Amino acid sequence: MKRQRRVLLMLRSPDKLGTDYLFLGVLFVLGMILGHVVGGFVREHQQSDLAEYVVSYSQYSSARKTVPAGAVVFCYYRSAFALYLMGLAACGAWLVPLYMLGNGFFLAYCIHCFSLSLGRAGVLLAFAAFGIRCLFVLPCCFYLGTRSMTSANQLRRGDLIRDNTVSNQFGFFPLILCGIVLLIGCIVELSLTPRLFSLILDHYY
User: Fold this and answer.
1) Do 34 and 112 touch, CB atoms closer than 8 A?
2) Which one of 23, 56, 159, 172 is at 20 to 30 Å from 33 when CA atoms are compared?
3) Angle between the 2-10 and 132-157 helix axes, to the nearest 10 degrees?
4) Distances from the Cα of 35 to the Cαs of 22, 50, 102, in angstroms?
5) Full pLDDT tens readout for the chain, 205 residues
6) CB-based contacts of 199: which residues, under 8 Å, 6+ apart?
7) How far is CA 22 from the centre of its chain?
8) Residue 3, Cβ density class (10 Å: 0-12 exposed, 13-18 middle, ≥19 buried)
9) 89 DSSP 8-state letter
């Protein structure tokens, strides 16, 4: 019963939706700023190693006209799954903000490293690798993150659900919606990313 209450609590809509979105958005942007700054400390030999890896991976993907499906599915669904689990424990109240901060940091860090190692081609390759993914993953992260953070805060305060009349179909709507969106994103990335890699490599290499 306690586990069921936690699941239902996690799936409730946050009372202050706009404030939670703004808070997580600020943390995400702050993480991007930190990632950009830290990326500037990458050394020249590391830049050359990264350039070789990125070009070889891009050439491999464009030549095979595909990217590893399992890796794409994992990258798309890992954040949604992690955020959902954070909402089932009181520690999610600070794990969710840290997770969003880390997401922004690593995204900006990777893009900055791409641009340092490959110049304009690196920026375009970074867009091909992360752009489509961000269009689908980030909205789901914010959508589930706000609910998880609210749930974790309520669990931390010891709040219990008094109204359990909401149907399971309605209660699990956020998860179902994000699952469908992420599935569409996987299909789009598997279809378009190799072509984008091919176009960029043909133009610059």
Assistant:
1) no
2) 56
3) 130
4) 20, 16, 9
5) 455 455 444 444 445 567 888 999 999 999 999 998 988 776 665 666 666 666 666 666 655 656 678 888 999 999 999 998 888 888 888 999 999 999 999 999 888 887 777 777 777 878 887 888 999 999 999 999 998 888 888 888 775 444 443 333 335 778 889 999 999 999 998 888 878 877 776 666 5
6) none
7) 17
8) exposed
9) S
How far, in Å, CA of 190 to CA of 194, rounded? 7
Amino acid at position 168, single letter: N
Q: Which amino acid is at 22?
A: L
Contact partners, residue 153, CB within 8 Å, separation at least 6: 93
Question: Which tokens in the block code for residue 136?
Answer: 């689908």
